[in-house]
Design goal:
The complex is a heterodimer of chains A (319) and B (96).
Chain A: H1 13-22, H2 35-54, H3 56-60, H4 69-94, H5 100-109, H6 125-143, H7 152-180, H8 184-203, H9 215-220, H10 228-246, E1 256-258, E2 263-265, H11 271-278, H12 285-298, H13 300-318
Antiparallel strand pairs in A: 1-2
Helix pairs in contact in A: 2-4, 4-7, 6-7, 6-8, 6-10
Chain B: E1 8-15, E2 23-30, H1 33-44, E3 52-57, H2 69-77
Antiparallel strand pairs in B: 1-2, 1-3
Classes of the chains: A mainly alpha (319), B alpha+beta (96).
């Protein structure tokens, strides 16, 4: 039976739950929770897990072509981290009753969403720098507040992930810094990557608050701590000076520091593109799912062999 | 679409270094104990977090029923005298 969160008086389970999370109470898998809270979390956590798993591909594209043995080893470690993050998150979603097989099947069937950013291609080495610096930077901005999420298993997974992510962003910046201190051609390559990744990175924070219908509920339930627009602003504020340091130009004519507010003003992302890519019509959407499906199918014999071995071993031990 | 039997769920406990107790860190899927240990190492100890690892089949864990928490743990709350702060220590008395 589910434990009912404590609250005095004659209140409904929903009212008690709302009061409990509003007072920063932490929810565990055996705490009574409204179906909508459970469903919201399963959707968010599984999408997050899928993003980590699909996110291995754009970077995996450069594993064999990284420019030095050390860059190769670093990138391999980073991609392995992304796999680990996917596993932490799938496990967190499972505590809510979701089945791993169902989640994987939904991803492969194309019915589950994942971050639109991973549907963009990585044609140059500078893209690996831009992903670490911008994409992981935006992800960290989103994820740090999730360490205080009301759902315990998700919050604990996010703490591990954030601890591991900090090297990801720095290694990306380091790649771009090296390119920006190099030849004209290397600087041009870095600028080209920034030109392509800037806007999709801003889109990672999701639609404007006014167009994000579930945000208010998620904030009331202490799943979200800051609105999409707040986090996007914070990202621009910290990233603009970093771009200056690199000597790169952010591709936004409206970008300007506002002395009065202490914030950077910036232009409007192309929301049509955002919705198109999110709906599965990104430059690499089909390729990403096709490749994951192939990897899953090609791993089937490993799962079957492990299963057969475990059964045989159990029988031998029992005999 | 998934062909094989669903892998079993295992709970992972890590001892960060000698002298500390093993603490629960999360769960993984594996078909047997050996794979569970290897997967736990790969997923939870990539940065030297462990001096020792335990893996336990999740269904081997016996947990208290959260619905019984009040009855189970409330008696402890009645016994404030188990805590040293219950007792008044007069001024002038030291080393107590």
């Amino acid at each position: 039976m589910d434990v009912m969160v404590p609250a005095p008086g004659d209140t409904s389970p929903l009212e008690r739950f709302e009061a409990y999370v509003a007072a920063e109470g932490k929810v565990e898998s055996d705490t009574w929770m409204p179906d909508a809270y459970r469903n919201t979390l399963v959707r968010q956590i599984s999408q997050h897990a899928h993003s980590e798993i699909i996110g291995m591909q754009p970077e995996g594209n450069w594993l064999t072509r990284a420019p030095s043995l050390q860059r190769k080893a670093i990138l391999l470690a980073k991609v392995q981290d992304e796999a680990g993050h996917g596993l932490y998150l799938y496990a967190a979603a499972e505590t809510l009753g979701a089945s791993r097989d169902d989640m994987v099947d939904a991803l492969l069937a194309g019915t589950a969403k994942y971050s639109s950013i991973f549907n963009y291609p990585t044609p140059t080495w500078a893209d690996i720098g831009a992903i670490g610096w911008l994409v992981d930077g935006a992800a960290i901005m989103n994820q740090v507040p999730l360490c205080r999420c009301s759902y315990g298993p998700y919050a604990r997974a996010m703490k591990r992930i954030c601890k591991e992510e900090s090297f990801h962003q720095r290694q990306g910046f380091d790649i771009l810094l090296t390119l920006c201190r190099g030849t004209d051609a290397q600087r041009a390559m870095a600028q080209d990557a920034l030109d392509r990744w800037w806007w999709p990175s801003l889109m990672m924070f999701g639609p404007h608050d006014a167009d994000s219908p579930h945000s208010a509920t998620s904030m009331r339930w202490r799943i979200k701590r800051f609105s999409n627009d707040e986090l996007r602003q914070r990202f621009v504020d910290v990233t603009a000076p970093q771009a200056s340091y690199l000597g790169l130009r952010i591709p936004d004519d409206d970008l300007a520091y506002d002395e009065r507010t202490g914030h950077w003003r910036f232009g409007e992302p192309d929301w049509d593109e955002f919705h198109r890519v999110l709906a599965g019509d990104g430059p690499c959407s089909a390729e990403r799912i096709e490749r994951r499906t192939r990897a899953h199918a090609e791993g089937a014999w490993v799962r079957e062999a492990a299963d057969a071995y475990a059964r045989r071993h159990a029988e031998t031990t029992a005999a | 679409m998934t062909t094989s039997r669903r892998l079993d769920l295992w709970e992972v406990f890590v001892r960060a270094r000698g002298g500390l107790h093993h603490a629960h860190v999360g769960s993984i899927h594996a078909s047997d104990a050996e794979m569970a240990l290897e997967n736990a190492r790969d997923v939870f100890t990539r940065r030297g977090e462990a001096a020792s690892l335990w893996v336990v089949p999740s269904d081997a864990i016996v947990a208290s029923d959260p619905a019984d928490a009040d009855e189970l743990f409330a008696p402890a709350l009645d016994k404030e005298f188990r805590h040293p702060t219950f007792y008044e220590v007069p001024d002038g008395v030291a080393n107590l």
